[in-house]
Amino acid sequence: MQIRSIILYSKSGEKRVLDFRLGELNIVTGTSQTGKSALLDIVDFCLGRDEATLPISPIFNTVAWYAVVLQLPGTRVLAARPAPAPGARSVSTAMLEVGGDLGIPELSDLRTNIDSTQLRQQLGRRIGIGDTRSEPPAGSLASPLSAHLGHAVLLCLQNQDEVASKRVLFHRQNERGIPESLKATLPYFLGAVPEDQASLQQQLIQGKRALRRAESDLKALQEAAQGADSRLQSLLSEARVHGLLARDSIETSDRTAVIEALQQACSFQPTRPAGDEEQRRQELILSEKATALRRQLRSLAEERQLLNDLETQATGYSSAVTRGISRLSALSLVPDAASAEHSCPLCGNDLAEPDPTVAAMHSTLNDLQDQLNSVQAVQPRREQALGDIEQRATGLREQLRGIEGALSIIAEERTQAAGLLGQAEAQAYTRGRISAYLGQINTTADSSAVQRLESDIAVYRQLVHDLEEQLDTEAIEEKLTHSLGYLSGKMTDHARTLKLEHGDGLVRLNTKKLTVVTDTPAGITELLRIGSAKNHVGYHLAAHLALHQYFVANHRPVPRFLMLDQPTQPYYPSDMAKRRGRLEDLADDEDRVTVTRLFQLMHHVVTELSPNFQMIVSDHADLPHAWYQAAVRYNWRNGEKLIPTSWLPEEDNTP
To answer: Is the pTM of this model over 0.85?
Structure first.
């Protein structure tokens, strides 16, 4: 897979088509802010990445669709994606079209017909990515991982933040989950893992599970056979304790007789207490009667209290009247004379206010005597009423005591019934245990079951052994070591060609740490501990060129292109130097030589692998060498850019 064209469609229907040569070095040079770096993001986006990393600017907002035309053996593929909506961070839809003479469609012909996942799957199959799903290690929480085109593309792109990094060797390596994906898929892309690894691993897992299950069943049968007699006797005793068998039902050690007795115990049906519903109905009726009697007793108590209160009041009133009569009884000693009303009966003197007449006081005395007689006349009737109330209350209490006695009897019967239910539950539990064990005894007695399990175990063991040989970890490690040895040789040659620091030692790719390491007098040194961004660029280039040399030589399913963005950025620090991109803009003669070596190495490797490898490099450098100028496809200077300014509205395009 190589890139024939990158196409941008404006919202008005115009097209910006960038064509690239297949199997050659393609250089896009120019000044800053001309869109060179966006080429890599466009390719990444069109090949299935959902997250949009394209620039957000007025001129890029004019783009409606992005597309690439890919060259595959014998055919072409158009992969197109609609531009993200304003404010959107991702897009999942795409368009995929395949044809031997496929041209560049118009904007009106573009429409989504696939999602990004299917896009990667179909493109991956076309370059040879097969069923590569790998199971995680035992005990790992990771999900099974399937290699797809997205993982392969990580080996084909280097943006300007990555190509000079000492911490990141591969594209997007600093993003969550990407390092794990690279570690899992690199052995496959290097050919160390078989194509059908996923299928073989799944068969191995299933074979091991079947083997463990058969071994467990056989062990259970064997253990059950060893302690069967003692277990049977124990269950027989338990059945007697819970009433499933008569206590003198069987006294023998014969297994057959014991099994028959236990089978009889399993068929035991407990008797449930009868009349439970009738008992509940009677209890409800008695409870209602008891409630009514208590209500009547409360009413009688209230009446008794009322009569007692009246008795208390009458007694107080009688006492008061009696005292009044006692005081007025001395009237018989006083003469009944009219003059006595105005004179003191003791001294005879005249009174300022005349006293009541003797006749009036006699009248009051008679009234009091009549009232006392009336109160005393009521007393017998009140006492009779109290007696009636007490008699009625006594009868009600007798009835209530009888009802409460009946309820107590019902409660005792319920308690006994609950005991019977508890016993029934214990019997049911025991019957279940006996039934389960008798099932094992029956299986144990069948010798053919043991023979069948032993035969299955032999078959499963052979299957697991054969699959483990095919998935031999040591064999995979040997293949991976061989692949890394090839890469090390190429990387070392490239490092020496570029005259990198510590490049005289053995340079290697560390797939566990995803970095470059090299031998130094102080020991093994990682890229992180090698100074200078210039060296970092060189080691990145050496590693990725070596990888693609390996991919081509071994026909691995990886796209046959490598895109680099700004590999010479450490050498052009000033804005003036970036705009011109000439060698004479570099202050150091050694830097001029090194920049030339970088592109010479790219040119040499592409030529060596032609027509099976393509490079697209976006950079400020504009070297004067003929071979370099022949590789320049686009030179964006003097107003030339990726997106024409004519796409902007007129009000935004005014100088």
So the answer is: no
